Amino acid sequence: MFTFVKPMKIQTLYKQHSCSGLSGRYITFDHIRPLLNFSSSYISWEEIGSTQNDLPIVNIKIGRGPKRILAWSQMHGNESTTTKAVFDLLKLFDQKEVIQDKIEAFFSTYTLSLIPMLNPDGAALYTRENANGVDLNRDAADLSEKESRVLRSAFEDFQPHLCLNLHDQRSIYGLPSGHPSVISFLAPSEDQQRTVTATRIEAMKEIVRVNRVLQKHIPGMVGRYDDTYNHKCVGDAFTAAGVPTVLFEAGHFPGDYNRERTRELIFYALLEICGITAVSSEIADHTDYFEIPENKVNFKDIILRNVKFHKDDEPVSLGIQYRETLIDDTIEFIPVAESIGDLSNFYGHLELQGKEKEILVNYQQNFDIGDKIATITEKTSKNTLFSSNT
Ligand SMILES: [Zn+2]
After folding, report:
1. How far is the CA of 368 from the centre of ligand 1 (A)?
2. Residue 289 CA to ligand 1 centre (angstroms)
């Protein structure tokens, strides 16, 4: 039924049909509200609830087919990359120029129920948690929060065949190979024994298909999350309720702190799930899921290797991590001293070489972990090794 769409073609599709109205990391309900305006009769939206601070939670319905997919993004307010990608997908579905045969096939095969922003309060505050400081992805058992109850009702009313739980992961994750984990996945467990049940196998097959697509774009940079069971996590709870659930984690592509590249990759992944590309038309073998390398915490944003803070010190490495800070409606990436030591088991997205020179941090010999770093200079030559302005 579907024909192969070559990688070049989907890149062109993305360039021509991505949603230019959303960019950067700070994506709030105010940003998406003007985009809830669709011309296709196959796309509609409604308010399905409200947040603690009384912002609307909306659900967008796409298609009228028998296969039901429920997806939600930005359950963690500061994780906006997949929200950008779902609006790219909506823009593609809502045009009348290209791949109409595939889009019509999607509309008649699937119904996608999409909650593009489950936690608008957290999005406005740029926090992981909701306005009550609760992590909604640890509230699946208690359902103490309004947002959690909205998602649970959507799940029970819609009775999906597949769920997509769309998140961002921090830039600290990498793979044993030394590559960053640009995107990672999980087919959550439904019991303490992490039994590979029929429900999990379905989720694993989806991940195997999507991984095949992503390997063409980011070879060796896809990871797999730890599958320890936690009944408080939504994916684990929905899997335990018998619905295959795929956790997406959009991560860091080198140099791309605004995550526009990762957004494009998530778009490709969603096209594959929705059968638009069907690159992986052959049957997916779920055991390939276990061939995807497991994520490790082995990256720092910047590592300055081989430096001394005092003349007689042994050379050490300085790990620097960006602190994402909301200033005037944009996210500033503020470099902060995070660790000092050997760090030979870590990789830096940016690696700087100190050549055993004695250095000054912010023109001082002494500083503390957690301090902001404006500049690092060589003590004698005054050469700048790092500046937050560059
Ligand atoms: Zn998350």
Report:
1. 29
2. 21
Residue 287, classed as helix, strand or coil, is helix
With CA atoms as reference, report the closest residue to 335 among 295, 378, 302, 298: 302
Residue 1 is assigned to a structural domain of this protein: no
Residues 6+ apart with CB under 8 A from 155: 70, 163, 238, 241, 243
- Kindly give, in sequence order, each residue whose CB lies less than 8 Å from that of residue 349, ignoring residues fewer than 6 positions away: 171, 180, 252, 254, 255, 299, 300, 301, 302
Residue 54 lies in a domain: yes
Helices 260-273 & 7-17 angle (0-180, nearest 10): 120
Query: What's the CATH number where 122 sits?
Result: 3.40.630.10
Q: How far is the CA of 135 from the centre of ligand 1 (A)?
A: 9
Output the six-digit token pair for 299. 């990256």
Residue with tokens 């505050």: 125
pLDDT tens per residue, range 290-349: 999 999 999 999 999 999 999 899 999 999 999 999 999 999 999 999 999 999 999 999
State the distance from the centre of ligand 1 to the C-alpha of 198, rounded, in angstroms.
25
How far, in Å, from the CA of 317 to the mean position of ligand 1?
30
Per-residue tokens: 270: 């969603």
Q: Which residue is it, tokens 């770093």?
A: 373
Same domain, residue pair 346 and 289: no
Ramachandran area for residue 325 (φ above 0: left; ψ -120 to 50: alpha; else beta): beta
Question: Using one digit for the tens of pLDDT, what is the confidence trace for 349-365?
Answer: 999 999 999 999 999 98
CA 165 / ligand 1 centre spacing (Å)? 9
Residues with CB under 5 A from ligand 1 (ion): 76, 79, 167
Q: Which of 384, 372, 252, 248 is nearest to 322 (CA)?
A: 372
* Residue range(s) defining the domain that contains residue 346: 299-387
* Rounded Cα distance, 26 and 329, in Å: 7
